[in-house]
């Protein structure tokens, strides 16, 4: 229970796409094409569990309502207040999940299963047979919804109908594993299929499948390093840790590649979510190439508004809050607070050093920088995303032979 | 030369240059190293669980046999490769038996399945040997049963048997569980138009894609095993074998962990929706499922029961269904009795969908029919014999109503002995399957004992060879006397057998409380104490063994010999000679002038 197989989701997605792509290009109207993709997204959620589909139908309906309120209030003095209240409502849901996870998960399943009963006994019974789940994809959905609200507050013109909101929310490739795409990125093809889109889709699919099925699969057991570290030598833990980081990257970026590839089949050209982050030579480049869509979200909605582009201590404050946002997006926990502080410190230190001393170039220096950063900066921090608070000290004590 | 090669490379792949090839080569080496490092660690042999390890196992009492006529054709949990049933053989009478764990029986010394015990009791139908394919899915739910029926129909069985579990049968929180089988049942499910609504509800496009690919490629169907094989191969040649200790965590579980450990969804709904009572035992939780059953004709479960009736009727496939028993002591509770009765009545109301004479739709719990047998909990059997005996009889009766003749084994050796040591005699029989069986106290149905190598009564003897107060079996096997304590435990060798059992007698000649063997050798009575020690001489023998009677004629606790001889002086006169414990001198005890014909053998 509480297991969700991302591969199953993509297997279903690719299977549906075989029919959905021809149907999509046969439909002459944009709205019909969007509706088709919305239905595909809804069906894929239904396959996970009907209660998850019902949850997202309610969620995005509420977002559509908030979106209209924020857009209307944008011209008034209540504009900022309505935006902040709406964001607080969405984040409140996330915070409730993260801080009271057992309670939230239990009631999420019970309530939405109960809600199905009056709608359809048959669907209710099918839902009973589905796995117990967490609100899969809610972190992504909340941030994408916040993006919508912010653009409405800025007064940007956009279709705010429920139909359009459902299309944005249920866009099939990205609703479970991301990327955290902006609504403006979801521009579907309006004409005949383009060869470039299909070439990009093929490239992304091959790349994604290779990462997920070969590289991540072969290294997946390294996850054990977070569970069974106690009875192993320092050397063995370090070795497993490096492999675990590679697994983490291949798995995550592989699914991102697949999501981007499927999007391209419908003419939606999403920006890459990863750009060889483990070969970067400084913390700033790392965060510009790791989970780029999330970093961009944080940059748009946190870093810039807080004055990150200014000089002085203001930029450091903005940097700190941005990193904490990224960290706590994963989970609200002590290890993620440490993760946020750690990477804030790294970025601030790099910025201070870079301002005082211009970077030196050279192949051998680049190799050394990359290796050192990978081994002693990125790799060390990745376990914090998954460790419980009580495991942080034992794990790192063991890692450093203390 | 170099330039021409580069040009050729460019024709193959625009942009291919020596540096780019070097880069690819470098990456290939890097990946090779990474694979070498990682592969040994992830090499996990596909785990076959306990069920498939017991395929064919008839009874795992040490020394007992496997029943090759019964095979479990379903996968272990987490095996994604589907059922392994093959087309039924024309020269066999094939039964497809679909059931969950309620056909299991697990004890300290045995692990068996009801079908494996039923098969020997109906070993032939219409002169064809009976074989049973068991579609065993632990925790099977109604929708699983439906898809399993579709699978069985593909193999054209002579009879389908379905075991309804009363805990699930009308409980709508429990309608489907074996989702890992979904891709493999796609092929049969899509061929049956009436199943499409269930397909839409339970199967996904991914299942259809995988199912189709599985049909085309064994490598896909057995991908778990394939992956494990690849991993093992990599492990063999990898220079980077590394070890990482993986002891299980001993930390207490939090609530989310407890939810994660619930292996079926219904466990979650039961725990959180029904306001569980803390400290409920497994049996109490099982009973709660009966109390929770939804007696609603519109549920998926009721719908699926209807569909199964229609499906088997359309295919003209004989069907026999029965309701698994629940523990008798639970049934004695009025609340449970009433709830079960409601379930039985609700299921029985669906009988209208089983209208054909070849559909035997039994909805009365076996507990109401067969009394007094052991359970491990409420639903899992601790003893199979009585249930198997009843089912074999009832299934044969159903087949007889269809004009089919079922060969029921006949007891060809019966004896009254005290096999359980309670002082009361038990009936003993050997049926045609060669398995010792008992009716304890001459009341219950047959319980299964040790396996014999013959059904010939002359090749068996009864006695207490170990002095434990219960009757043991004695036989000759591989020229060795062997005995089975209480006729239920494995055979144990005693000593080399030089005399057939037909030429021996049993008695306690040394008064030690154990049974000794007696024979005539070189015109002398010899006995082997406890059938374990070397033969020791007794008195000389003057008549064939057939004319010797054994008994405690002086009441001293030892067995005496009584010879019936013709008088040396008056041939028509018969004389009785007694030797106390076979060691005392022969003493004339009585004489007669009339010849009791039946007592004499030979001259």
Features:
heterodimer, A: 402 residues, mainly alpha, B: 603 residues, alpha+beta, 21% strand, elongated
Largest Cβ-defined interface: A-B, 45 and 51 residues
Which structural category fits the helices and strands of chain A? Answer: mainly alpha
What's the N-to-C terminus distance of chain A? Answer: 36 Å
How much helix, percentage-wise, in residues of chain A?
over 70%
* Radius of gyration from the alpha-carbon trace of chain B, in angstroms: 33 Å
**CA(first)-CA(last) distance of chain B:** 112 Å
3D shape of chain B:
elongated
**SS element count, helices of chain A:** 16
Task: Please state the structural category of chain B.
Answer: alpha+beta
C-alpha Rg of chain A (nearest Å): 22 Å
Q: Secondary-structure element sequence of chain A?
A: HHHHHHHHHHHHHHHH
Q: Figure out the total of helices of chain B.
A: 17
**What oligomerization state is this entry in?**
heterodimer
